Q: What sequence folds into this?
């Protein structure tokens, strides 16, 4: 939403209670929409962006409401003091529940949220000091500087101020270092772990954040209603909050407000309109409501807000992302000290991986030295990418070990290996397609900053964020994608996406860079530019382990080659030695007759050959 539309919305929201012609009913209705919006904002992060479905948010609303209700009635504590207490209690409960339940995946996670949501609901109704199912009444109203907020028109401003502050904080969070990690939860968790991001920790963070927002909503609800009972905190309300998030647009901040308004207004108006239309007193509103929900989910799966946003963009002329200025200049991030050239950086010693009875990697050994490019080649299915995954901790080894700068890798998870200075790309491109090119690369620099969730939400990390974005822009300019900073990564061609992965890996400032088929999908000139970049990195002291099927590219670029076939190391040596190795020719060409004159034009590759046969003779042209 642009600034003009935002200002217009704020003016309308501020003016409604001040207008005497605005019915009291609609003020109360807007208050309930505001309360629901705060809860649904948490679900935008938790479910829409984080991909974790929860039916139990209403229970967290109940914890906030019951905390302030009990403390204000039993101890005469100021309602304003009960707010941080309720937040702390809710956060602690959410942390414990999240640590336990977020280890689950698939349908087990939402089922578990159903279980503890129901448990908390029945707990509210069975505790004597909480009034059991009668609840707690005569709760004090809020007041600000002596001004009572007992009426709906008065508390309206407080509710919507907190709604706007929650939206501002959530938007800030999503546009920050931790926000990029949160956006990787849904579809890029494995990739993000390879850049040092603790995804399990971020799951718990999002879970607690959503619970805290729900608790604040419960605090407001208790002092608006001045009474609480278990019924508004049951399972049906938890499902309703989830509906609001999905209908409005579970991936957008404004979708939380839109979904809350649509669902609550629709529920209310159907009760008034349907009896008149159908001329009956029977309860048909739930049936019609269900049909409408099915239609929305069928034709607006991403919610209604993205549709309205796209219409608004068309009406206002949209935004030419490619024409936006790059991030402003900022202080450069600190860099790791490069090891002395020739130092052994990576040592792979008899590493082995078995999948049941299949030996994917069979006791492979080799080394990579500082300032050296080593090629790992072989036919498809030779075990090259599996070897990469063993080195980077994506796949556990069966036996053997790999060490980086004297530190064993095979006993570490992927994120700890990344912290040591090991970066990588993937055989199958792993980007976050709905994030911009700039944001994808900034995700790679995650470990080079320490901005936390709360400083990001409060917009207190602008300096650190500017340095991360500047570093990302520098790396994109380096690889030739400087004109695509604000393009969505999913809109790039496959070859550009592979180059983008390299820029993301470089943003991590690695000492060892593992590239899995980086030239796949690139045109000839693009390969030439990539070769120049990799050669420059070599001269700067970076070590590179390269898997590639374009043998012209490999032969001209690498210092050393390791050939694999059926998981076993077939040969190792200089590129010129590998080109003449009989075992390699056997693997690639299926054997050579004694009378065969090895001429490139007469070679017919067997079905096993996936690499360019021309690579097995000396390359004619420099890359």
A:
């Amino acid at each position: 939403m642009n600034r003009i539309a935002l200002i217009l919305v704020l003016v309308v929201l501020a003016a409604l209670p001040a207008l005497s012609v605005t019915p009291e009913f609609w003020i109360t209705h807007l208050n309930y929409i505001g309360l629901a919006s705060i809860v649904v904002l948490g679900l935008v992060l938790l479910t829409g962006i984080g991909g974790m479905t929860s039916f139990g948010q209403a229970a967290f609303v109940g914890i906030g409401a019951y905390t302030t209700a009990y403390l204000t009635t039993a101890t005469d504590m100021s309602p304003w003091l009960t707010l941080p207490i309720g937040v702390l209690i809710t956060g602690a409960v959410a942390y414990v529940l999240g640590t336990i339940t977020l280890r689950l995946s698939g349908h087990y996670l939402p089922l578990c949220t159903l279980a503890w949501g129901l448990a908390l609901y029945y707990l509210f109704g069975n505790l004597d000091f909480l009034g059991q199912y009668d609840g707690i009444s005569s709760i004090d109203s809020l007041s600000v500087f002596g001004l009572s907020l007992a009426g709906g028109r008065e508390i309206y401003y407080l509710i919507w101020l907190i709604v706007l502050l929650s939206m501002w904080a959530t938007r800030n969070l999503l546009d920050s270092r931790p926000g990029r990690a949160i956006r990787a939860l849904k579809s890029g968790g494995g990739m993000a772990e390879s850049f040092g991001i603790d995804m399990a920790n971020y799951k718990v963070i999002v879970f607690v954040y959503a619970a805290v927002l729900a608790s604040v909503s419960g605090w407001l609800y208790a002092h608006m209603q001045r009474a609480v009972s278990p019924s508004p905190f049951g399972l049906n309300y938890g499902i309703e909050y989830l509906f609001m998030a999905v209908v409005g647009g579970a991936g957008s901040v404004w979708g939380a407000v839109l979904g809350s308004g649509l669902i609550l207004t629709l529920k209310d108006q159907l009760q008034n309109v349907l009896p008149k239309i159908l001329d009956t007193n029977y309860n048909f509103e739930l049936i019609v409501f269900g049909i409408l929900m099915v239609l929305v989910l069928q034709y607006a799966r991403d919610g209604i807000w993205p549709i309205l946003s796209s219409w608004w963009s068309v009406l206002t002329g949209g935004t030419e992302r490619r024409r936006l200025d790059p991030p402003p200049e900022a202080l450069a991030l600190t860099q790791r000290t490069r090891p002395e050239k020739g130092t052994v950086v990576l040592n792979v010693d008899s590493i082995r991986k078995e999948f049941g009875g299949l030996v994917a990697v069979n006791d492979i050994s080799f080394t990579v030295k500082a300032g050296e490019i080593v090629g790992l080649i072989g036919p498809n299915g030779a075990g090259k990418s599996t070897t990469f995954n063993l080195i980077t901790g994506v796949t556990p080894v069966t036996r053997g070990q790999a060490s980086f700068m004297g530190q064993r890798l095979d006993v570490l998870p992927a994120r700890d290996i990344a912290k040591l200075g090991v970066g990588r790309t993937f055989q199958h491109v792993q980007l976050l397609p709905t994030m911009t090119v700039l944001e994808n690369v900034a995700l790679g620099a995650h470990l080079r900053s320490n901005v936390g969730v709360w400083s990001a939400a409060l917009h207190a990390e602008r300096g650190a964020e500017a340095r991360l974005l500047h570093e990302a822009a520098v790396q994109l300019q380096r690889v030739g994608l400087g004109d695509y900073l604000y393009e969505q990564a999913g809109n790039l061609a496959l070859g550009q996406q592979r180059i983008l992965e390299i820029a993301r890996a470089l943003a991590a400032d690695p000492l060892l860079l593992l590239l899995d088929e980086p030239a796949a999908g690139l045109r000839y000139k693009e390969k030439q530019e990539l070769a120049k970049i990799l050669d420059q990195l070599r001269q700067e002291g970076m070590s590179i382990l390269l898997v590639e099927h374009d043998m012209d590219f490999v032969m001209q670029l690498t210092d050393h080659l390791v050939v694999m076939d059926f998981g076993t190391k077939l040969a190792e040596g200089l590129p010129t030695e590998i080109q003449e190795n009989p075992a390699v020719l056997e693997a690639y060409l299926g054997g050579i007759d004694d009378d065969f004159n090895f001429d490139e034009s007469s070679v017919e590759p067997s079905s096993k050959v996936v690499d360019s046969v021309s690579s097995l003779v000396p390359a004619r042209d420099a890359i």
About this structure: The chain has 23 helices and 14 strands. The longest strand covers residues 344-355. Residues 344 and 369 are 4 Å apart (CA to CA).
